[in-house]
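Task card 7
Instruction: Convert sequence to structure tokens.
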Amino acid sequence: MEFRQLKYTLAVAEEQSFSKAAKKLYIAQPYLSLYIKKLEEQLGIKLFDRSCSPLRLTYTGEIFIQRARSIMQSEENLLREMNDFSEEKSGILSLGISPVRGAYLLPILLPILRKTFPKIHLRLYEGQSFELEEWMNKGLTDLTILSLPIEKSAFSYEILLKENFLIVSPVEHPLSQKYSCKKNRNIPFIDLKLLEKESFILLHKGQALRRIADSLFLQAGYKPNIILETKNYETAHALVSIGMGFTFSTKTVYETYNNVNKPVSLFETIPRFTRTLAIVYKKGKYLSKIENDFIDLVKSIFGNASCL
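Output:
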């Protein structure tokens, strides 16, 4: 069996379409369809259920794809290991990160990366948490910066930093006036149950901050009054600053988007939640010198940070 057969079959399985897979592979769709049909005849099995739209794998097809991914991963690991015999630190590093997290991490990270490894080209994949995990599974990204927890059986990770989850409140709200900390004092705590009748501006489902928020609302025992959902944290922050409601943040995210012309108040949540940020990669993946050096660089920047 050739690696090309595995590559083509994986593409069809991932795209759930012969036409989309052919476009991705830069080949003609009729050729790809015939190619897969001949492979099925060679194996004496059906890999795909063509009666469904989109295409679905058969039971034996699912087993084939699992083995194919493992073989392709081994081939990639071998190539990476051989490339490591070259001392020149150059190449492409594909990094997955959310747009919100990228806004505060990349301005710190990229200048140091460019100075330390000028011949490394960084390719960014920006998306929500579920997309980032999917891209790792498909091998599109080498490394991903994500909040824990993640599926431990599928991924390995290195912890970067820990920070407390915060409630962002309008400064003129009575609770802000009552509980807000004085200058140079620690951020005060507030029980999320006190906000049961308040309005919230939250990120969309699937984004890391939203997943944590939903978990905290569940612990608080009520369904929040969500007046708006947005993909953009800056939008949520701006709306809180004009008194439209409450949102959630962490200190690093808050400091990125904080604007003296759009002041807000901060509280730590009760129940308390500490978010762990990690650099994640697919379990069993061979880490190249470039990737190991990148992980060491990111950990040196963020890994020594204490719980914020």
